[in-house]
Amino acid sequence: MPEPYDSPPAPAPPGGGGPGGGAPALAAADPTAAAAPAAVPAGRRGGGRAPGRGRAAGPAAAPRGLWSDAWRDLRRNPVFVASALIILFLVLIAVWPQLITDGNPYRGDLAKAQDGPAPGHPFGYDLQGRDVYTRTVYGARASITVGICATAGAALLGSVLGGLAGYYGGWWDALLSRIADVFFGIPILLGGLVFLSVVTSGSVWPVVGFIVLLGWPQISRIARGAVLTAKRHDYVQAARALGASDARTLLRHIAPNAVAPVIVVATIALGTYIALEATLSFLGVGLKPPTVSWGIDISSASTQIRNAPHMLLWPAGALSVTVLAFIMLGDAVRDALDPKLR
To the nearest 10°, the Cα dihedral for 272, 273, 274, 278? Predict the structure, then answer.
């Protein structure tokens, strides 16, 4: 007599319960096989396409970093494109002025002194009968050289001193901060009048050295603040905990993340240094003849502004466009590298 709660055995399906029944017999032998879902025909699974007919799934796109995002934003910024093209043109004529003029900036004809524009001489002549167009083109060399070399020197010196002060702190930070405060207290124009008045050389290098001497404290403060912020991050603490040396921590982990504000300040300062060189040359303590400089030409033309305004217009216009281009470039770089402005 069967037990009260035993269910009667299920009848075997036709042709499937015997030894030759195939799949049902296998299901009875392996209970897990009955729980497997039925096969879905190819091309019907989830309403999708058949394998090989749809788009191949590629690897996930790698996340972009600060520099790739900044470069993407800069390429789409018309201010950056316009200023970069102007600066590229100025650098080209500073290196190869023969690209756009074949004249001699030192050759003069007193019979043509202060004459206006003439065929082949679109900017006219100066007090000594020299071609103003040729001198304006050659004047870019001195200004661009002073600006780039002074910016590179001030950025390098300020970044090293400011980075070390921010990383080590203590007495080293206090010492460098007080030294920077001393240089901050010197008016840069007054310092140039005092320092360069005793220099007899009229080349660009005394001017470059003076600008580096008084220009590094500003970049030093920016670099110090950036390093102070970067060294508190977890990845820096992890690198130091794993035994990374100070040099490796500074160069590999802190410097790449602290260099952005230094680049922004240096780019804007480059235009300021070009204007400073022209001011010092205008006052007679910067570059000196026979060096061709926009500041020198502006100084010599300032007394003849009523009789021959073209002598002043073109070198002053070239100086203004150059300074404006570098300042616009610095503003565009700042907007691209500052995450708060995105």
Answer: 100
